[in-house]
Fold this protein.
Amino acid sequence: MPVEKTKKQIILEAAAVLFRDKGYSATSMRDLAEAVQLKASSLYNHISGKEEILKTICFQNAKVFHDELEAIEASTLSPTEKIEQLVRFHIVMATEEVTSITSFNDEWRHLTEPDLSRFKELRKDYEQRFKGILKAGITEGIFKNIDPTILLHTVLSSIRWVYDWYRTGRPCTPDELAKEITDIVLSGIKR
Amino acid sequence: MPVEKTKKQIILEAAAVLFRDKGYSATSMRDLAEAVQLKASSLYNHISGKEEILKTICFQNAKVFHDELEAIEASTLSPTEKIEQLVRFHIVMATEEVTSITSFNDEWRHLTEPDLSRFKELRKDYEQRFKGILKAGITEGIFKNIDPTILLHTVLSSIRWVYDWYRTGRPCTPDELAKEITDIVLSGIKR
DNA sequence: CCTACCGATCGGTAGG
DNA sequence: CCTACCGATCGGTAGG
């Protein structure tokens, strides 16, 4: 059996591009149909509706981030090394998973209940665990004794929106990018 | 003459709240009309259309940021002090101008030509000038010798999305917030 | 996978 | 400022 993308996968990827470029609400099912060379009605043979697409993109990405964070948490790395790994991971996702990351970051709020609440919980959980690593570093005296919430969001912001500017600017390779951002972030939080 | 908000100003503010909560595309003129207790058709006595609202919000904010940056540029402050001022200013805007900042940051892409191009130019200009301050610091040997584009966006990201999390979390006063973020950002970029 | 079509809602206008 | 209404477009379904 050859490795082929399912039509559903093709639709999901085309949708991610459109959601990134126009936003979820401004993307019509007819736009999407055109992008995959189908009539709008034919999309429904592969997906149940517009929201299923957004839902799939959001929760798939949430799982990838969750799994990586869990692996890093479980490791015996120091807080500094854990943050380093996490920064690197975010950069990799931003540079390789460019399109779906946008929906994951910016378009999830168009989910409806109960998915919206479920997603928010996942997001909250991720942030709490990330914060836990920062707290450990503070306790050990290697990170600055700053309110962990501020620390968390300042770090997270610097790495969460990389996809937003790297794509157009591209001053260097993803690897160099990861190295330099890690440098900035780590010296920003180290005591 | 008493100081009163014009109806237009009231509409703009209500729109900013809706755009923040639902996004520009998902906000209908009927939503907006209800928010200001009018019928949808009556909105057009005060504004020419939906896009004029977005345009006004985006360009008003762009001007405020532009003017502040220009004043800081013209000062005799050191690069470090200039960045400090800029960080503080972004935090003030994020905490005081909470709603319109969201449209300014996230919804501008729904502008249509020629406004879209005009806005992008203003944004680009702001970033180039901000980068100029960073470059000056690098030349003086006080900032890290890292690609200025990476430096710029990492700094800008940490302060551009404060409104997004501060509102819900609120771990401290805007003033403390500015102090701590300035600390993180500055030690992140200093050599 | 298509043609044909649904009711709902969109931004906006006419006319008073 | 309203009522009444426009054509366009929306997400989605029926039926083959």
Summary: Residues 28-30, 40-41, 43-44, 49-50 of chain B lie near DNA strand C (CB under 10 Å from a C1'). The radius of gyration of chain B is 19 Å. Chain B touches chain A at residues 23-26, 106, 109-110, 144, 146-147, 149-151, 153-155, 157-162, 165-166, 169, 171-172, 177, 180-181, 183-185, 187-190 (CB under 8 Å). The mean pLDDT of chain B is 94.
